[in-house]
Amino acid sequence: MKTIVNVPLLLRQLIDCLVLTIAYLLTHQTVCALQQVLHYPLNIPVLCISIITWVATGVHLHLYEDFRSRPFSYEFMALIKTLLLHVCILTFTLFYFFKMFYSPRLFVGIYSGYIFIGMMFSKILIKKLFLRIRMKGYNVKNILIIGAGETAIHFHNTIAANDHFGYQCIGFVDNEPNHALNGKYLGPLSALGHILENHEIDDVVLAIPESSREETENIIVTSEKAAKRVKIIANCYKHCTSTVSMSLFGHFPVITIRSSPLDHTGNQQFKRLFDICFTVFMLITFSWLFLLIAILIKITSRGPVIYKQERWGLKNKKLTLYKFRTMEMNTEYDSNGVFRPTLRNDPRVTVVGKFLRRTNLDELPQFFNVLKGDMSFVGPRPYVTPHHLELKRTIQHYMLRHLVKPGITGWAQVNGCRGEGDRIDQWQKRIYMDNWYIENYSFWLDCQIVFQTIVNMLKGDKNAY
């Protein structure tokens, strides 16, 4: 079997140092060319500080973890976080300790751009290179699977179907042989020590959900005596998502099968601060627009300017949502008390209402919901009570979207999931996108959604009616 040592941490850090050095030299030449200066002195201490800062922040932000079994998006996010912190520290250093440094703002801007391009190129190149190497049988970790049941077989099939993970199964150990193992059954648990001694194995994977505490302890002790790492597949693996996490409560490892960045208080506070600042800015800047819309609604149809509707928000609690009224009064329910959702070309929508709905301007009063704390600017859209009760009953994972505050706009909305949604698969897609946003929240994702919302408002959304 072909095996070589995995790329060591030191080598990955040295490649990053090389990228930083090249980016620094390119930035130096670019700044000289832009300012038409023949030569600026090359400040080596700044380069050294940059390299030390990058490596230190990279280690702190998990840039150098083993990403072999994860998509590139994980490494990309670690790279972005490292770059942002690196830029902040470097900017502070230049302005406070190198006050005579030439054009610090221009330098940091260009330097950051070169670093981003260089790091992206190097990380993608290395990932593709080692993918090819692993597919040829090199740089592969050998694993031994303890168990031969359903869990063990599913785990084996997963690594067999994903060569880029870089794992190869040496065989299975279980007290009960499984004839479906195609000759990979190596023996019972009592022979584990002998099997570990006679095979080249990197990791032992425990996949016996029904094993007793004594069996588990014996497997761990035997494996560690043979200097092998032990990984345990949790019994709840079928319910776990890509955001599964584990924490310690005393000496008890507790698995959270579905986690979100918004579980952390710091992210919640930052998102709330962004909501308040952005909402106050929008209210001040577009106060004239609120007044204009209110006047147009009042002079073109009878009824109040603001429409209030019961919806459901954080922790499945009711909230009163505010909108500019876009429909004739008392037409939300029919004579039998059945809710009537808005349809395309709905005759109940007023002339002004059609424009407000198409441009999403009818949602502007929800800024007051944000200030009250009922909603966030970006989040899953809250649904009216009849829809909420129906979706709660029929759509898988629907209630998970109520783990965070609802939003004025959201990931599903900017991706075209609006309108009637009369099929189960359409609603399921919306809920999937809402839950994806919750599990992948970041400030930059919120900025992207805000930008896409503005673009949709300017060009008009065909699904908004």
Automatic annotation (TrEMBL):
Family statement: Belongs to the bacterial sugar transferase family.
Main localization category: membrane
Presence of the UniProt keyword Transmembrane helix in the record: yes
Pfam family, one: Bac_transf
Protein name: Undecaprenyl-phosphate glucose phosphotransferase
Location relative to the cell: Membrane
Keyword Membrane applies: yes
Taxonomic superkingdom: Bacteria
Keywords associated with the record: Membrane, Transferase, Transmembrane, Transmembrane helix
MF terms (GO), sorted A to Z: phosphotransferase activity, for other substituted phosphate groups
CC per GO annotation: membrane
Signal sequence region: none
TM regions (residue ranges): 42-64, 76-98, 104-126, 273-297
Stretches assigned to the Bacterial sugar transferase domain: 271-459
Membrane topology: Multi-pass membrane protein
InterPro entries the record matches: Bact_transf (IPR003362), EPS_sugar_tfrase (IPR017475), Undecaprenyl-P_gluc_Ptfrase (IPR017473)
